[in-house]
Give the backbone structure.
Amino acid sequence: MEKFSVTMPLTGEYLTTVRLTTGGLCALVGFDVDAAEDYKVCVTESLLILKRNGFSSATIDFCVGEALGCAVSGMGETGEKEDGFEDEISKALLSALVGNVEFVKEQDRVVRIAFEG
């Protein structure tokens, strides 16, 4: 199993780069177009959850093997936590697309999201 990591600011201009990177990794493990799109949505939604939970940047750790694992961790707190309603929609979407998702919370906010496809 190989590991691939990306650390990035949680601003809009970097999300496209992360989606392209994720798509490339999905191709390496043999995802079809629909599965790759679902996985890219999951990575993007995870980043948005962390941004809404007051983080200014994130690290994405991919584990590439027979499956594709992903762990997204928040860094650089901004202190600005937004309303949790959108988080609930994002969490439901993640659960629907990849099934087994782990949400790690500290002090009532999400700090890490992990899943495998």
In short: DSSP finds three helices and five strands in the chain.
